[in-house]
Fold these 2 entries.
Entry 1:
Amino acid sequence: MSISQGAPDAVAPDAVAPDAVAPDAVAPDSARVVGRSFDAGAPDGVRAFSGRALESVTLDAVRAGEVSTDDLRIHPETLEHQAQVAADHGNPQLAANFRRAAELTAIDDTDVMRIYEALRPRRSTFAELEEIADWLSERGAVINAALVREAAQVYQRRGLCR
Amino acid sequence: MAVGRIRRLDAQPVNLDGFAVENADLGLIALRSPHDPAPSLRIEDGRVVELDGVAEADFDTIDAFIATHGLDLSVAPEAMALTDVELARLLVDFAVPRAEVVRLVNGCTPAKLACVLALLRPAELTMAMTKLRARRTPSNQGHVTNRADDPLLLAADAATAAAYGFRELETTVPVLADAPSNAVAVSIGAAVGAAGVLVQCSVEEALELELGLRGFVSYAETVSLYGTEGVFTDGDDTPWSKAFLTSGYASRGIKMRVSSGAGAEVLMGGAEKRSMLYLESRCVALARAIGAQGVQNGGIDGASVAAAVPAGVRELMAENVMVMARNLEACTGNDALMSESDVRRTSRTLPILLAGSDFVCSGFGTIQRYDNMFGPSNWNAEDLDDWLAMQRDWGVDGGLRTAPPESLEPLRRRAAEAVQAVYRWFGLADLSDESIDAAVDAVGSKDLVGDDALGVLNAARTIRESGLSMVDVVSALAESGFEEEASRVLSMLKARVVGDYLQTAAIFSPSMDALSLVTDPNDYAGPGTGYVPSAARQAEIDDIRQARSVADLRAEQASWASSSIVSVGPAPVGSDPREVVVGVSPATGREIWRTLSGLLVVDVLQEILAGIEEEGALGRVVRINDTLDLGMIGLSAARLAGSGISVGLQAKGTALIHRRDLPPLANLELYSVAPVLSRADYRLLGVNAARHARGAVPEPAKNPYTDEAIEARYHTAVVSLIAVERGCCSPTGPDELKVAE
């Protein structure tokens, strides 16, 4: 059980992407998506959340205990790339989802689950939802913050605040 | 008391089903409730201020989310101005590109799209589905569960399902805390069966997310949406919590679709007098609005409620087409068993199988009905051969293939052994070799050796509490001699980093190509276009394990060959008035030795001869070599008989009594249904032939009663046996045969 859980502590609030990764090394053009296989090795240029090149994540590396959870997590810039592909294929809402997701890559598993729980009906007061929105904003998750603020407004009107 | 005809109908399985009188007040109405709102959309300053008759200030949470996020307001005025019929025709017309339909539907309100779909008749729905589904290549999804949550059986069954071609496997639990163990066991089993199989474990939302984050599953589906605010809230979510959850999955690179479908609101008493199709239209619009890539709908748990009302099954399919028109992945129901009637459940699924869908079933029960912890599916393990036959009959791809029977024992054993090794590696459980033997051979969990419920629970708790992740499982597999499987599981984890399978309708090919709306778009544009199975795939569809060739049947007949029927020279014309001749077909005693009813031809001949003798006549046997026509065989034999009476027998068992002065196609008595004839029937035919020879008028022998599909069962054999007979025909005179006593 050599695996560390959760996102790295080092992720800065305003830097969604781990800073070790150069943007152009990660965001591939959309042409590469079509009909390709990555079984024999990762497609060129795809990096994990940790910044590690995916082709270096091999079975031997796993056996040597040299693969962390973050080596198998998606990078926010890859999600931005997928958002562009979704938008190009007639689904701006799917693109918006991927952009919210890109922000959430920097949020711990436990915080993702905590915020999800807080958004369920009658779990949170209006003020608590506003606090969550602020917390998300501070971590660069501004689209998600807006979503939570919007929820707070509607919940208040529809009696879904605690 | 009802007459016999009705008493007989009452006993049919269809009459175990419940049928409801349409009742809009209860929401028991499929397509158009008088209480459904008229479609409307008012936009002011780029903002929706009225949606389907509701003013902005009165929007409930569902209206509010759709109004804010779900509609393309730049196309809405154009789309809403089209009449329902105009839009309905665009959905069906193959000359209108899918992209154009998708563009316009983006501007349709839920009520508008419900009105449009309610216009489509079944054949039009089939056409629309053919054209509108997202992915070009159809696929299928299966359930893998068992009542004991036995990890060995889960793994063996997951491997089996993967071998049958399922590209997504869904498990769940009777005991919630067992979920981590089930997820691990099914993921390992799937990897043994094939590469690239997606796996999910359907449990409560928060636990399901946790399983995804830990890597134990590769997609999520049990993210339920409902069509009324009250039911949605009772389901302990809101559109915003679901939207956030959707992004939570995507943030970890995990595929996700939502789940909805007719009947859920009715069952929860909250349909608000709306039709099922309108409520589902709200769900589908919301699914699009929150950014889900796909929807599992078409009834699902409420399918039997929809099926209880008029046009309910049509409504289920309309839901699916609605998903496709909103440019989302469709996992098209055919999930919960909606009828006790084989006819009705087939009728419910067939148009979708013919049209093709991203996942034809959103849960084909790949295990025994009693082991399906979702409840029995509309299609279950015992129906696998039926499904394969239906694919073959129509020449369509329903996503499955034949798993060669001889391959399943080693496959299931490897899956069970892989789980045993991983559970031992982490000290989760010490699963015995005896348990493996039982799981490998088991039809279902009733065949296991004992039910170690606490052991499973303990393993699941350890997985959850120890911080174990799927990377650790990869390592354990590799260290235990399951390198290929470890590599497959690792590939699924790496797929999350690439993210291509987050796109609409993505599955993996066995070579790990992501097939989706993006990489494998449906390009159907009328006859001659769209998905056609490759030659290799068509061969999989065609070559079911039951198919037999002439060579197969010839070999089977040869295994019954003996020296019991031999030729002793040319057959003379007889003169004894007591003589009855038994004329047999050209292949008799050469290539055909057994009749369709399973009797040896020699035994049949002995019965006929015994019957002839019993009545004091004399019998002899000749082989007619120049015709395989039974009438001509009988007539030729009658002309050789001193009495002028013969019995004609084809080696496959068809028989008649003939007389020398009748036309060839006439006869005195006929057994036309060879597969149901017994020794006694043939003896009676001999008896009657002798009575005819004496000038008596016996009561004619008749085919025994049968209501079986005799022709279906034997026609392929008949065609082959007739071909063999034809090969034995020659323009030579009859042979006298000696038949062993």
Note: Residues 12-132+222-303+311-325 of chain B form a domain with the TIM Barrel fold (CATH 3.20.20.350).
Entry 2:
Amino acid sequence: MIKRVNMEKKTEVPKGCQECELGSIQKTVTELKKNLRRTKRLRVALVGQPNSGKSTFFNSLSNYKVNTANYYGTTVEYHLTTIFIKNYEIELIDLPGIYSLNYSDLAEKVSFEILTNVRDEFKIDGIIQVVETSSLPHALLLTLDLLTLDIPMVIALNMFDEARIRGVNVDIQLLQDFINVPVIPTVSIKGENTLKCVLKLIEVIENTSLINDEDSVISNYSFNIKNGSLFYRASFSKEELRDVINSYKRLWKSMVKDIFDSTNCHFENCKLVPACLMNIEKYAPNMKSLANVRDEILKLKSNIIMSISSLVFSVQKPSPTFEDLIDRFVLNRFWGYLILILVMFFTFYVAYFLGNIIADKIDSVVDPLSAKVDDLFKDYGILNPLIIGFKEGFLGGIGIVIPYLIPFLFFISLLEDSGYIPRMMYLMDGFLKPLGISGRSVLSFVLGLGCNVSAIMSLRGLTKYSERIFAGMVIPFVPCSARTVVVMALVTGTLGVWWGLSLYLLSFLIIVTVLLLINKLSKFNHLYFMVHIPPYRVPSLKSIFSKIWLRFKTFVFTAWPVLILGTIVLSYLSYFQLDRSINNVFSFLTVGLLGLPQETGIPLIFGVLAKEYALVMLYSALNTDNIKMVMTNLQIFVFSVFIMLYTPCISTIATQVKEIGWKYTVISIILSVSTAIIVSFIISKLLYFMS
Amino acid sequence: MESIEKDKIYKIKEIVRDKPSYMNYGLIEDTLLRVIDKSSDNKNFYLEVIGFNRKIAISVEFLQDIVLEEVSGDQKG
């Protein structure tokens, strides 16, 4: 079983017996030292193709929670955790999904470099390959590559229950015989057999003879590159397969050795691993002939895969499947777009509707409580701003942010897990290409509705540099959940649903215009699109709540304390009458250009930290619970437009710098601020004349 | 690529270049593809890679590197 280190573990000590107590402590210390000496360290990588359930597998083994979803490329960087099993301290690494060791994007490159130890950062002692059972033949592409690394390995046939329902049958014993690697069926979402995989891997590592018997097998099999009749065989028999797989491994290795010996070619940053051959165009672009030989070996690889698949894997499914029938509507040229619009409308409308109900319930508790606090602490002099500021920040988080944030996150998580987002990519690709981005970017834009930070990080899954830059500069215009809170609480709550929706439409129009503009000015083009479409899945409540908690936690532990600190600072600024001078500095913008109350200056500054701060700080700065008493409808709308569009929050800026660099981040900020000023100014003047 | 029709099955005869990248998506010579859907402008295709039990969406530009052959009814099995 999993043991977690508990250094504070106490032992029972008989009362009044000092010697016994000392003796007991010494014994415990000795035992602890012994245990520490006995503990062996292992580093285990969870490897698998995208969307095979690695992160769910990782979560089931650790207390650490990473995000999961039903689309390709949820994990774009590796995650680490340490677990203790038997007398092993195991560092478990959840790697980004990779189809084979021939990586094609930045996220896959991370996995490639760790597995081949290019970075000299991690030496992997063992691999658990997480395979989505329904697509076992496809996963064998990676399995064959991993076998060439000669690292002890176990295969987890994940989502085994779902595969059974889908009519998939796998002959596990035969598969094990062919690849000489233990294969264990798992259901990681229920934690079934995940621990068993780790225990089995330990066994394999302890008994390396289990994996190192290839030489004896290969010695019976005469094979060399020049006399490779195997290349032209379309399939192999049961008896031949294991030998052929070992030959395949040996072939890669001998080729790498040949290249090193004959050409003195050094694959920059790449260790002597067969995998580097897969990336021959990247590492040795002048060795074209080698690429041809490599292609021949790939042919052998595909023949091996097809042969194994035909013997161990079968699917019995009706034609057309239920999924095909749903897809006929979802991808239909008329119904598909109608469904897309309805899904997005439903997401926002129901989130707003539920948010309103929750907000009303919370208000009925919070308002009397707030009044009581005001009464209780009105005569506390210099401490008064501290208490009132704390109260406003704390209750602002509960009463204004949480009611709208949770329902919205619920629906976004539902979308992520259903498998609908990749279909949106297919539907939208045709519209997006003239804007300089492909359908693959849709994922980042949908993620942006939750949080711009994770959206920008997901750009690592895009293969085109230009597309990453384009999307990275424009994603800050996508209304994230923080801005949705502002829209729902401030605009929809006070002006009505259609005013709220018009803000989303405005964001959409601005994104399209900015993309068109950048695309026109730049020389980037040629956007091609290839993406896997996962099966539809009924989202599990456990997974959805875990996702909500992950994102909600960021608000509770990161944003909320800053929000409370912010309201305290504002209270003191107001107490010492400094707020007016700060607001004066910004009055040329707030009062002069946008026609807003002067008090909106400070909330705009706080909005740079996180957009929802601007909302809570606005209530605090205007010292009101009812915004309509102090601002006109026009001012509320203009303020919200400005908040939606102006500079990305500080976390987004930091992520932009990391992912697209300083130059493009600065351009993006200038673009956001100038768009916010121009659009808000035009809207304020337009609405003023119309009214 | 206008000739690729919905609901028909095609065999990959040859992949002209960058085989490893195509392989990542299960596109290997001799595998069968079923066309589930194609966009109205013939720019995107939604395919099932039959042997791999996978579905992919792919731009027409990628398909231009693949030589396809329509499979008649008796060859599908």
Note: The helical segments of chain B are 19-24, 60-63.
